[in-house]
Amino acid sequence: MASPLRMALTRIVLGLRRVRDWTIATAVFALLRLISLLPADKAISMVDGLARRIGPMTPRQRLAMENLARAYPEKSEAERREIAVEMWGNMSRLAAEYVFLDKLFDFDPEETEPGRIEVSGVDIFIKLRDEKKPFIVFTAHTGNFELLPIAAAAYDLDVMALFRPPNNPYIAKRVLAARRTSMGHLVPSRAGAAFTLARRLEAGGAVGMLVDQKFHKGAETRFFGLETHTNPLLAKLVRQYDCDVYPARAIRLPGGRHRLEIEPAITIPRGADGRVDVAATAQLLNDKVESWVREYPGQWQWFHDRWEIKYQLKAQGRL
């Protein structure tokens, strides 16, 4: 049984953590309100410029640079730093674009001329809409990935998306409310999420997943040639419901434009018995994401602890 002193200290620590989270969230919301008073392009460019200067001074920069050094040992320090700076600009744009989603998303399936948003793979969207069969679409933290479910909705596709809420509970609550408004059904990645997604597929619905997040357990795979664990959920859902799987990604283009791409269904690896090979499927997802990241390295979130090295760096006094 915990002593009264230990319980009191725990309550104090939790209270201080809540105060810290509330303070950070209040500052973030104030900045977003300020941004909303400006024209969209001007506000987004301003935030981009600030992030490119401030981001490299944060503790996350050290983790990003370590990840880049491991993923790109052939690149120089200056080249890796340039990628990190672009990453901070991309991340800040992603945050600012939340404020202007209604204004930014001008895609209309009936229009022949592309606007700010262009879509590649229209025939696949139409096929999925007309077939009305269960399917899974996966993506990664590249470009403004938040635009993908909005594009699906433009084709009357209701995709239930699995997402990881921010660690800050005040920010998480606000983000979830914003996403529900424009992005359909959302499932926070916590206990019970797998059952919710399974029921969706069983009912003939569609599921969306981000597959490039850190996962402590799961399939042993490689990413950029480095050992890492990958969430086996997608492969297990395919094994159970035998549904097609489609890669999709968002790419930032010059001039504040975006290209959203959905690719043909991938061929799922199977064993000699015909069952889905979970480990091989997880590796296939990593290979696809790696190909995307290598094409546009500055549009991926390198400050995530994908290879679980944060504790190593802390032990070495480097973080």
Automatic annotation (TrEMBL):
Its main location: membrane. GO terms for cellular component: plasma membrane. Pfam families: Lip_A_acyltrans. It comes from Hoeflea olei. Keywords: Acyltransferase, Cell inner membrane, Cell membrane, Membrane, Transferase. GO terms for biological process: glycolipid biosynthetic process. This is Lipid A biosynthesis lauroyl acyltransferase. GO terms for molecular function: acyltransferase activity. It is found in: Cell inner membrane.
